[in-house]
Amino acid sequence: MSINEFMSHKHRECDDVFSQAENFVAEGKWDEAYKAWQEFHHELDEHLTMEETVLFPRFEEATGMTQGPTSVMRMEHVQMREMCDKLSSAALAKDQDQFLGLSETLMILMQQHNMKEEQVLYPMTDRVLGDSGSIIQAMENHGNQ
Length: 145
Known about the structure:
The chain is 88% helix and 0% strand. It has five helices and no strands. 23% of the residues are buried. With 145 residues, it is mainly alpha-helical. The radius of gyration is 16 Å and the shape is elongated. It has a single domain (3-143), classed as Up-down Bundle (Four Helix Bundle (Hemerythrin (Met), subunit A)), CATH 1.20.120.520. InterPro entries: Hemerythrin-like. This is Hemerythrin domain-containing protein.
């Protein structure tokens, strides 16, 4: 399995849980919504952390590029985490309008971010690093720590 395939699959898993949370909020099912939101928030944070602690450093070491695509991705990670904090507050307050408005913004941000990773960064990473199996294993092991 390539890094692109593995990480793109992770993107879809996060998207599915995010969609569940949005649907529960729209239906006013706050217990289910909060549970799905917490699951999404955890999955997203794990995904971003895998990239920041395993994938990006290996890419940067192999290419010498520290101000390139990984720098942009890290900046977007900060934006997504800030948006998630606001969404968590809206979920706790059971503020449907606030949650759904912020979730639309986060979805657009994630879609643009994922497209850049899946079409540019991950394919570059597969070409440059080559040994996708050990990198995927390192990312999975990081998530289990």
